[in-house]
Design a protein that fits this description.
37% of the residues lie in helices and 14% in strands. It is of the alpha+beta class. The strands form two sheets. Strands 1-2-3 form a three-stranded antiparallel sheet, with no helix packed on it. It has a two-stranded antiparallel sheet with strand order 4-5. Helix 2 packs across helix 3. The radius of gyration is 23 Å and the shape is elongated. The mean pLDDT is 84.
Length: 175
């Protein structure tokens, strides 16, 4: 109704309303994924009224309060659109789990794989399997890191002690 009567209303008022509506932030983000004859596609739409972003080149995207955690995780995996199917499923699951440290990201997980032949929602058994694989992966990674750090010391000879809580903080710069 608004757009059908648009031309009969005061032009300046309508321009102002259009501008205000396009700038209003609904606080909504949308992630769209699908498959067409040219392949798989991932789009995100962010508010207020920004254009959609296509993420096909890198092969992943994230939205919400855990975005930075999930994206950093996928970057850490060196994920690309050319990755194998099972690797992708694991990396997405692991990245979601890693994003759970962000405020507002819940622990419940639903996952679906969208393919040319349809959508497969992972069952609770499949999610449990991924959870076990993730926990094993995370603990073995943590253990490997602890072992390597046990031989590492700073330039002043101070050893790095795993689990030490001495109040030290670290920072880096691009200088």
């Amino acid at each position: 109704m608004y757009y059908t009567n648009h031309n009969s209303l005061n032009g300046q008022i309508m321009a102002m309303l259009d501008n205000q509506m396009s700038q209003f932030n609904l606080g909504v983000e949308l992630l769209l994924a699908g498959v067409d004859p040219s392949g798989a596609h991932i789009h995100t739409v962010h508010n207020p009224g920004s254009t959609e972003r296509l993420h096909d080149t890198i092969g992943y995207a994230a939205i919400g309060s855990g975005t930075i955690h999930a994206l950093q995780s996928m970057i850490g995996f060196r994920h690309s659109a050319a990755a194998e199917y099972h690797e992708t499923v694991f990396r997405v699951y692991a990245s979601k789990r890693r994003a759970e440290v962000a405020p507002g990201v819940g622990h419940d997980t639903d996952m679906a794989v969208i393919a040319a032949d349809g959508t497969h929602w992972l069952t609770s058994e499949e999610l449990d399997q991924l959870s076990t694989i993730f926990e094993d992966f995370q603990s073995s990674t943590d253990e490997t890191l602890r072992q390597k750090l046990s031989d590492f010391s700073l330039g002043d000879g101070t050893p790095i002690v795993a689990g030490a809580r001495n109040g030290a903080h670290a920072a880096s710069t691009d200088n």
